[in-house]
Design a protein that fits this description.
This protein is an alpha+beta fold and 396 residues long. The chain is 24% helix and 19% strand. The strands form 4 sheets. It has a 9-stranded antiparallel sheet with strand order 3-6-8-7-12-13-11-10-9, with helices on both faces. It has a 3-stranded mixed sheet with strand order 1-2-16. It binds zinc ion.
Length: 396
């Protein structure tokens, strides 16, 4: 495994990135009423006029925003930020973990389920999940009864990746070179699993925090590699493909250019990566991390881009932790090209962070009611969320 040199410090990176985080509003209306299905390609034909901020156009008025990656809409209701909150107060588990926990099944040297024993690993380390949701196989069985009962066998492999031998560290608490080691292991696993005949898609993700269902506080993520491109990346792939076929640029390349021009949804950045609250964010402090240079997958990143990916992950997750002064829970994942052997120039490597917290360490958002029955909805605007994250600084 290659571990690169330490990059510029996060604070220095942010100080430099912050100078470009100047929001701009005004100009003429550039309105896009894109349809859902099939993916409609909206040509970036605004010309030289400045893009109009949704804050300027809608103010506190309810409006719907289109997720250009998925074709889904989200209802935004800024005026509701004024109502009183009478919701759930969650217990915050004390964060006093030891560096090594003899009862943790992920710590080095400890025994796992089924009698497996962990090696005395010293850096990031991956192994087959003892309770895998997928099994390797041929995937040949199909069920189709009158087009009404339809099912397909799904082969695959589930892996667990420990970010560090240290039980008490999360990504924002790790040093950038150590996070770079995780980036390298992600790239290795993507290449190795993706090369298999029974794997067409590799999903790397992390559930962080009890509130997100993480069963063990030891910092770790997962990798589920399977034959089929699953629902969410497949939906995104269709929109990425439609845009690339028309413009010969990636959808996220064009989107990033616009976000850099406007500035109001940017959170932090460095020379290779930008973290922003997407225009169509559903979760209160949802972010999207985009590579400035379109790369289809981790294997296409050079040494410097890998260092800087580690840097932007640390910058962003440290901001999350500082926001409500708590180890910020989230589900995060990497979207990259399917591993079907095709080149996929439409693919643009990106990371999604979906954190549930809304107003404090104890007040979270639920996707229920209208959101289960109709569509996603949020009160805090993505612009306001980005501003909160930009202002968030490490307090501990
Ligand atoms: Zn995505």
């Amino acid at each position: 495994m290659i571990v690169g040199q330490t990059g510029e410090s996060s604070d220095a990176m942010f100080a430099r990135g912050a100078s470009s985080l100047v929001g701009r509003a005004g100009g003429r209306l550039s309105c896009c009423h894109a349809e859902l299905s099939p993916p409609r390609v909206s040509a970036p034909t605004r010309g030289s006029s400045a893009p109009l901020s949704p804050t300027t156009l809608f103010g506190d008025d309810p409006h719907r925003r289109l997720n250009i990656l998925t074709g889904e809409w989200v209802l935004v209701s800024p005026h509701r930020m004024k109502r009183p909150w009478q919701g759930q107060i969650e217990e915050i588990p004390p964060d006093n973990r030891p560096a090594y926990d003899p009862t943790c099944y992920l710590c080095p040297g400890n025994e796992r389920a089924g009698g497996h024993r962990n090696p005395n690993y010293t850096g990031p380390w991956a192994f087959d999940n003892d309770f895998a949701a997928l099994r390797p196989g041929d995937g040949g069985r199909r069920l189709d009864t009158d087009g009404l009962l339809v099912a397909r066998q799904e082969p695959g492999i589930c892996r667990v990746i420990c970010f560090s031998p240290r039980h008490d560290l999360s990504l924002p608490q790790m040093e950038v070179p150590a996070i770079r080691g995780v980036v390298d292991l992600w790239a290795e696993e993507y290449a190795r699993l993706g090369a298999r005949d029974d794997v067409g898609h590799v999903q790397i993700f992390e559930n962080k925090g009890e509130v997100m269902g993480s069963s063990n506080p030891h910092p770790h993520g997962q990798i589920w590699a399977q034959q089929t491109v699953p629902l969410h990346p497949e939906r995104e792939r269709l929109h990425l493909l439609a845009h690339h076929e028309r413009h010969r640029r990636t959808l996220l390349e064009d989107y990033l250019r616009l976000e850099l021009e406007m500035g109001e949804r940017l959170v932090c950045s460095n020379d290779a990566w930008v973290a922003l609250v997407p225009f169509w964010a559903v979760w209160p402090f949802e972010t999207l991390v985009l590579s400035r240079r379109p790369a289809s997958h981790l294997g296409q990143l050079d040494d410097r881009e890998r260092d800087l990916l580690a840097d932007v992950i640390k910058q962003l997750t440290a901001r999350y932790d500082a926001l409500f002064n708590v180890s910020f829970p989230y589900s995060a994942g990497i979207h990259q090209a399917p591993t079907d052997g095709a080149p996929h120039p439409e693919s643009h490597l990106h990371l999604h962070f979906y954190p549930p917290l809304l107003r404090s360490a104890t007040v979270r958002k639920f996707l229920v009611g209208y959101e289960m029955m109709a569509e996603a909805q949020r009160d805090l605007t993505p612009e306001a969320a980005a501003e909160r994250l930009r202002e968030s600084v490490r307090k501990r």
